[in-house]
Give the backbone structure.
Amino acid sequence: MIKHIYILLLLAFSFGNTINIPSDYPSIQEGIDVASDGDTILVHPGTYYGPIDFERKNLVVGSLFILEDNESFISQTIIMGTDTNVSPFVQIDGISEPEVELNGFTFQDISLNTFAEGTQSYVLINIINASPKIINNRFNNFQIEGQAESAVIFCSNSSSLIANNIFSDGMIALNYELTGWILSKNSSLIIKNNLMENGYVGFSDPTGYVVSVASDNIITENTFNNVSMGYCWMCAAIVALDGSSLIIRNNLILRATGDGYGAILASESEYVSYNNTLV
């Protein structure tokens, strides 16, 4: 109890106001609309719908997991989509503060697969000129198909921490462009302790599960399990392109199957790899 009171006080006095969803506002976006920099959007168990735009505000958006450290709150706080032509599904851009956070949600059954003319990318979480923490989330049963660059999490000019997330039973296919479950451009990410399992990428090139373009990323302590690739040439679980410099350490890669290079592919890039296990 003392711990919980301390955390609540910390939220109230150090990070501004706490807006409770749905008691204060019925939707996450309505809470963001009225929030100010430094506020916390605290989302209670339930099913909510995107899209979501942080509106260039310095916010923490999280489930009750951020207070209780109880993983059941992650599975109970679900975000779904209703429109297959909404991209990006979550927008975080133009925020320099490192406190921005998306923490403790399950993104469930989201499909981005309408071939809309002029669409430049199909992205679930789009991070541009910002460095939020994307932590402790679950991405279940997603499908991204569109003839454009595509990703579950896309980062450009970012120093984000992407950690402790689970990506499962998802696919990115039929894009015929650069794609990746985590795709970075001109970024310096820490990608740590994520699980990617039961996935497929295909009919795209280059493609993979963690794809770095002109980026300096640390990829550590992740597990890739049963990740398959098809109808691609430049594809692997971890891909480094166009002058990237990666540190790849302490990862477990199980059953990276299909076309391409399997575990790691580097083109005009460099990486240091150690203590990784390939099975």
The first strand starts at residue 18 and ends at 21. The two ends are 45 Å apart (CA to CA).
